[in-house]
Design a protein that fits this description.
By secondary structure, the protein is mainly alpha-helical. It has helices at 29-34, 43-70, 131-137, 160-163, 168-185, 206-220, 223-231, 253-266; strands spanning 101-103, 121-123, 126-128, 189-192, 195-198, 236-238. 21% of the residues are buried.
Length: 273
Amino acid sequence: MCKYLRYEPSWENREDTGSGFPHASGGSFFTELTKIPLKQMPFEMRNTYRIYFLLWMKILLVASACTTTKYGGYPGHWWKEIPRMEAKWWEVLPQDAQVGEVVLSKRNELGILSHFAHTPFLFEGKQYESVEGFWQMLKFPEDEDDPRRAFIQIKWNYTRQEVAKLYSFEALYVGKKADENMERMGINWVSYKGQKMAYNEPLKGELYKLIRSVMWAKLRQNKNVQRVLLETKNLKLIPDYKMKLDTPPVFKYHKMWMEIRDEVIANPQLLEK
């Protein structure tokens, strides 16, 4: 509602008249009141005048604070209203952000901070097309000696190398197939370079540290990612999909970005490593 409050009162050259009072247009009580010089007003009317003045000033201060906090210095389309009927079932829309927040919507440039974004990077000598591709790759067998290969009835339609080349929803859908295999095998871990890591660990464990390192690689090797992240300044970042309160930390990419952003602001040289 704050964005709809607009008023610009002028108190220059006021002298003894009420001509600078922020009144509504038309023949309202406010307008008529401000036509009367202060010295000619009855004492009670002067008090009424002062009350209305203080009320308007309070409204103006609230409007100014809301506008500055939510829109000041930021691109307005970050909060562009989208018809609810156009929303995906999982989606948090840009206008759902509260004051001081912004949704990392895939509908605008903030979507580049999503794991889905096609943001190629090198990590420990290998090429990846997205953080999502890297993430989903971890669910697949590493080699022929991988314990997941022991389940001969399980079919793996992709290799890790193939998944590493994916991004966006394609990477997610391939990962969903791997989830089905993991459930059938009764395992709840993924792996990287032979190290098993709990997939739904409630703490900031090894998988969390790994994904955070991958996000740093994405940031350092993509100027547009750097630009967009830093443009969010001190806004609270919100995911563009519905997330449960008990979601493990490794899935809360928005909070990881805020931590990384704070580190970069404190020490910009971190981007050069």
